[in-house]
Amino acid sequence: MEQSVSTSGAERRAHKTTVQGYIDEQPLWVDGTIAPPSPLTGMQRRIWWLSVAGKFFEGLVVFMTGVALPLIVKEFGLSAAEHGMVGAATLFGILIGASALGGLSDHFGRKPLFIFEMILFAFFLTLIVFTPNFPWLIACLFGMGLALGCDYPTAHLIISESTPTHSRGALVLAAFGFQAAGALIGTAVGYLILSAYPDLESWRWMYATAIVPAALVVLGRLFITESPHWLAVRGRPREAETTLGRLLQRKPRYPNDVRLAATADTEETRRSSGYAALFRGKNLRATVLASVPWFLQDLGTYGIGIFTPTILAAAVGHKREHAQNVADLVSNDLIAAKGAAFIDILLLVGILAAVLLADRLGRIRLQVTGFIGCAIGLSVAAQSVRFDGAARMMLIFAGFMLFNFMTNLGPNAQTYLIAGEVFPTAIRAKGAGFAASFAKIGACLTAFLFPILLADLGASRLLYILVGTSLLGALVTWLFRIETAGLSLEAVGGDAAQALDKEVL
Question: Where are the transmembrane segments (predicted)?
């Protein structure tokens, strides 16, 4: 017998009058039983796809820069120090942008910063195509990094504050996974342009391919809704109700009428919404959990990047050690692009596993398991120094492949997810931005110090140091754990102790 859906769930369950209560609400069958979860609304899907774009562009530009870098070095005649600055400029921009710009969305709103960051990205992306010299190049790369850094907290929050609790983790991580997809596409674009146009100027065409897509994303972001969570805590309940109506517009229509309960005192919220609030009371625990493991994860991830080129050269072919001309340079670059694409596929596999498991097994379990798996992979790779030939290469491959999978299943994905969930709405962007910036300090330190440490300590000792940082990441995660899977953002932000009661391991 055919069943009919009642759209009066809100009226029948009047206690669900918070923002998240309406977002999580399911319709009822006419006999009063709860219907299956409804698909995302059109507005929720639009928000998700436009958030995906930011992560995609990050992977696209960062990995495209890796392909373009040898050509840039040759065209501008860069020294070793200038070479390093090119590689670090975007990374340093992300470090600054995550806190300095991303945190502003707690004050100005999620939507304005969501639009501004993409305008900033498109602006510097266009400029870099026409850059005449090294200083302008650094400025453009840094500017793009600022925009991408702002996207770290903002894209997460714009998704998580507009989607149902039961699918929040999967949706955020699926969007984050497009960073790996962007990396793969960026490498592929670089390879195709190099193949079709083997010239020093071809790196400019690589960046130019992203200009029109970025402009279209700017246009699309103009027509999304503001976060109703943010509007509610800013003392604008009528606007939050109107926004919820737009966000949840569907057929058949439910809820029929949106009426939010009174929120906490707005003045008190504003007094406790500065950066100092991250280091007081229960927020301190959240700050440590969001920041320290992410920092330790970036040490390992960027450290492994130091060893990857040697492995890739052995895997995909032999390159000329000293390029004699542009043709040799392009040939070497094509070899590196092929190898990078191979690694990018591993990133996608790990992120896919994280998407499938984050809401089922929990963030903390996956992060702890991932850190331990990274330590095992690095230990296997460290044993390679005891062997020669095929055995050595097999151990390196096995260790690094395990590391890449486990870091994307665990800490690389889960640190990003946790950072945007464990803070109250009033300081959520500041907390997530601070965590991302703190992590990128580790990335920058690694980029500059690891070549020195590699020469002084050797590969094996350095790998064992990374084993230690991975195990430390697992320990810190467990000691400061706040499990957010299955909990609404209001429950986590309103009383973090609730989350601690949920044992996960």
Answer: 47-73, 85-104, 113-130, 136-159, 171-193, 205-224, 339-358, 364-382, 394-411, 431-455, 462-480
Instruction: Examine the pLDDT at 22 and tell me if it is beyond 70.
Output: yes
Q: What is the mean pLDDT of residues 144-152?
A: 93
Here the tokens at position 136 are 């302008």
In 3D, which of 203, 193, 160 has the Cα closest to residue 488? 160
State the average pLDDT over residues 389-414. 84
DSSP for 137-162, written as a single string: HHHHHHHHHHHHHHHHHHHHHHHHTT
Average pLDDT over residues 482-486: 92
How far apart are the C-alpha atoms of 444 and 448, rounded to whole Å?
6
Instruction: Answer whether 283's CB lies under 8 Å from 434's CB.
Output: no
Count of residues in the chain: 505
Exposure string of 468-496, with b = 16+ CB inside 10 Å and e = fewer, is ebbbbbbebbbebbbbbbebbbbbbbeeb
**Cis peptide leading into residue 252 (ω within 30°):** yes
| Closest C-alpha among 36, 337, 341 to residue 164 | 36
Question: What is the pTM (predicted TM-score) of this model?
Answer: 0.82
**Rounded Cα distance, 97 and 79, in Å:** 27
Compute the distance between CA of residue 482 and CA of residue 173 in angstroms, rounded to an integer.
18
